[in-house]
Structures are given as structure tokens and as C-alpha cells.
Amino acid sequence: MLVDRFGRPLLKLRVVVNDVCNFSCVFCHFEGQRPMSGVLSPEDIGFAAMVFRKLGVGDFKITGGEPLLRRDIVEVVREIDKCGPEDISMTTNGLLLERLSGPLADAGLRRVNVSLHSLRRDRYRRIMGVDALERVVRGIHMAVDSGLQVKINVVLLRENMDEVPDIINFASKLGARVQIIELMPVNDGLTIFDKMYVDVNRLVDLLMATRGARLVGTRRDLHNRPVLEVDGVRVEIVKNWNNPTFCAACTTMRLTSDGKLKTCLYRDPVVDLYPAIRARDEERLMDLIRRANSLREPRWRLEAGAGAPANRHLQ
Q1: Average of pLDDT values for 6-15?
Q2: CA end-to-end span of the chain
Q3: How far apart are CA 199 and CA 206, in angstroms?
Q4: Any bridge partners for residue 296, and if so which?
Q5: 188 pLDDT band (50/70/90 cuts)?
Q6: Roughly what angle, to the nearest 10 degrees, separates helices 164-174 and 133-145?
Q7: Which CATH class for the 12-151+251-297 domain?
Q8: Is residue 118 predicted with pLDDT exceeding 70?
Q9: How far is 234 from 176, CA to CA, in rounded Å?
């Protein structure tokens, strides 16, 4: 297992498999959309996953762009599964889940995070930029029927804060979990931040006061996220804005679709793995990953101090 100079183990790899999306969310941070020098094939991704697995990484999350737009996405999952991971999950807008849930589950996908920021058609269309709520809801039901564990991702906005209880009720009927994500002032999020930002602690206080929410744990492997239980539903709280405890427990790096390794979602790539991956040079690739890990540092280490308070609900 690799450990950085701040004592943080490297346990997870976020795999960006493409750089396009069929939605236009008002807060998009454009994780994948940028110029590329080449796109990793399923076999390239599988080789990289195998090397990361040998270095102690067991948790692989597939993302984009919108990962389901890759025509070979099932093969991507199958290639990652060959390395014997502890977990393979995916973040998606859900538009194509109705057709792909079964094949993805058969290939080795175990969990799916689906972005669902409103259950009201007009509001959904305003936030997501696409009139697709009914299709996405059908896809979520199909994911559950296919045996995938489902988590509903909700970016908290002033516009949808009143809907969070309804989304929790929706998740309860499916046996799904919910993840509430604080808005970040990054890319498109920056343009709406002053108008739409809500401190996620306000929502936690509201759920405790009105829904009997209680703190049941902390995901220390994922940025010290507090976990609430609300009417039998596990609700993870992602307070990422100006929160030193968030970065202090980061266990993740990100592999871009063209083979660059990022030590942080919000920083430029630091190490180019593409040549070593294409050459199937395992020793060289391990050295590059170790180098990147040595450069990891908490984003908020020097930036904390101004803005929103850290999560006071942290255990």
C-alpha cells in the first residue's frame, strides 16, 4: 500500500473514461472535458488497474464525462474486474441505465451513483439541461432490479433544498442510499455559486430537527464524510467547500481518459502514465504512480481559513 507524506493511504482510483456528456448541468465541474492526446482502450485501463491493484488500490470508480456514452463501457468494466478489485462503481447521469444496467452488472459493476437533483420535471430540466427525468427514474429502477447497489447523488442548491426529504423518500422505496454534495465554486459552479450555494450543515440541522436524522458513522476512507440515518436511509454528507478535514482523509487519485494521473480532482495532472500503459511497462508504471503519490497533498492545507466552516457534525 502506498502512503503519502501526510500519512494518507492510496486506496481508490477514479477512472475517467471519456470527456463528453449528454447533459448540461448548471454546476458541472467538467472533470473530463479538456483536450486529449489519446484515449485509453479497455485493455489499457485493465492493465493500469492491475498495476494499481498490486500497489494496494482496491476501489475503482468509473466516471467521465458521462461514462455510459462509451460504446465499449461494458468491456471497460470487464477489464477492470480482471484485476480482482474489492469494488467497482460508476457515477452516471442515468440516461442510459435502463438498457445497460444488466450487462454492466454481469461484467462486474457492483454499485452505481446516479445524479438526481430533483424529482420535479421542470426543475430537473432547469438544473440538468435535459428533459429526461422519467427515463432516468426508469433506469434507476432497472439498476436495482439488476442487483446493483444504488446511491442517489444530489448537489445541494437553494433551488432544490426543499426537495431533499422527497428524494430520501424515493431512495427509501428502492433500498437506495443518498449522497448530498455541497456546491463547489469550480468551472460552471463558479458562475452560480453566490446565487445557489447552501452550507450543507444547514440541511443537516434541518433533517435532524424535522426528520429525526441521527449521526451513525463517518466514512474515513472517503474524506471523513459524516453518515446520517434518515427514516432508515443512509445519507452521506459531502462538505467539500473550504473544509480541511475533507482533504485530510483523501485516499484517491484520478486517471484521466488520456492516461494522465491527477493527485486531486481540482488540480492539473502531474504525471503522464500513457506511454508506460501503452508499452505495458509494469515497472515503469509503478515508479510513475509512486512519484505521483509522493506529490499528493491536501487541497485545503494552505487554503483553509476563509469561507464556510468545517463540518461540525463530524465525529
Answers
A1: 95
A2: 26
A3: 12
A4: none
A5: low
A6: 30
A7: alpha beta
A8: yes
A9: 8
The set of cell numbers assigned to 123 is: 426543475
* Residue whose C-alpha cell reads 477492470 in the numeric block: 80
- Retrieve residue 84's grid coordinates: 480482482
Angle between helices 200-210 and 164-174 (to 10 degrees): 70
**Helix, strand, or coil here: 165?**
helix
Cβ–Cβ under 8 Å, residues 114 and 146: no
Whether residue 183 is predicted with pLDDT greater than 80 in this model: the reply is yes
Kindly write down the DSSP assignment for every residue of 102-160, as one continuous string: HHHHHHT--EEEEE---SSHHHHHHHHSS--HHHHHHHHHHHHHTT-EEEEEEEE-TTT
User: Among 264, 271, 275, which residue's Cα sits nearest to residue 12?
Assistant: 264
So where are the chain's domains?
A: 12-151+251-297
Q: Which helix (H) or strand (E) covers residue 166, if one does?
A: helix 164-174
Q: Which long-range contacts (CB under 8 A, 24 or more apart) does 305-309 make?
A: 305/242, 306/242, 307/241, 307/242, 308/182, 308/199, 308/239, 308/241, 308/242, 308/243, 309/199, 309/201
Q: Which residues pair with 113 in a beta bridge?
A: 91, 151
Q: What is the pTM of this model?
A: 0.90
Query: Quick one: pLDDT at residue 81?
Result: 98
**Measuring CA to CA, which residue among 20, 79, 8, 1 is closest to residue 295?**
8
Q: Locate 157 and state its grid cell.
A: 442548491
How far apart are alpha carbons 73 and 63 in whole angstroms? 11
Q: What is the pLDDT of residues 209-265, one digit of tens each?
A: 999 999 998 776 666 688 999 999 999 999 877 676 777 888 999 999 999 999 987
Q: What is the pLDDT of residue 152?
A: 98
Q: Are 92 and 68 in contact (CB under 8 A)?
A: yes
- Looking at residue 55, its pLDDT comes to 98
